[in-house]
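Progress note, sequence design subtask.
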């Protein structure tokens, strides 16, 4: 029972911590992209603002990577974004593997308790025979309690694991959409700037005397 109780405490702590960390307003703030566009419009994309953006949120970390390499080719920028996205996803999935392990191990711990209880039952039968029902009931009760306890820990842990994985997947899809939209607008802005520079009239040549 002690390992099962420990698993229940750890599982509850992981679920509560991930629910707090994976809040949509924390992972992908609504006005973040608009603020970055405002910085770009005002030419305020300096290292200070990029560092602030990187520390703002997981989405800000991806956007900061895109802005850091904004003068490179699209393929290079996309590769850098994907690399940053993998690190962000790894951070979002922190502790979920441990939660899945608890969901898988808890029933096995309950089964182990069942086996130990049945061993005690047969040992009591061997020592005292079947004339003492109290001894037999104690071993069977231990077997049933550990099985029930393992299932009571495993079922909520599995539900929490599936729910949190689904939330991570949804947040990742949302960040991908925001990042792709931001990347397209960033490249469009760069193309328009290049076209405006190329369309500027050249200075007239001085006539020779």
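Output:
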């Amino acid at each position: 029972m002690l390992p099962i109780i420990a698993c229940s405490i750890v599982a509850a702590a992981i679920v509560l911590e991930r629910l707090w960390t994976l809040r949509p307003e924390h992972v992908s703030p609504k006005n973040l992209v608009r603020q970055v566009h405002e910085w770009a419009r005002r030419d305020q994309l300096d290292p200070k603002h990029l560092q602030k953006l990187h520390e703002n949120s997981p989405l800000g970390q991806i956007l900061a990577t895109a802005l850091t390499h904004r003068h490179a080719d699209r393929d290079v920028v996309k590769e850098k974004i994907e690399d940053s996205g993998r690190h962000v996803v790894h951070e979002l999935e922190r502790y979920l593997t441990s939660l899945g392990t608890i969901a898988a191990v808890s029933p096995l711990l309950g089964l182990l308790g069942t086996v130990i209880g049945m061993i005690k039952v047969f040992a009591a039968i061997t020592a005292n025979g079947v004339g003492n029902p109290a001894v037999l009931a104690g071993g069977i009760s231990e077997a049933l309690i550990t099985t029930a306890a393992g299932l009571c820990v495993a079922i909520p842990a599995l539900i929490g694991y599936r729910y949190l994985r689904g939330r991570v997947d949804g947040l990742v899809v949302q960040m991908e959409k925001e990042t792709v939209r931001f990347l397209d607008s960033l490249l469009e802005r760069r193309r328009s700037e290049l076209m405006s520079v190329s369309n500027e009239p050249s200075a007239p040549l001085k006539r020779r005397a």
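The two ends are 103 Å apart (CA to CA). Work on this subtask will continue into the next period as scheduled.
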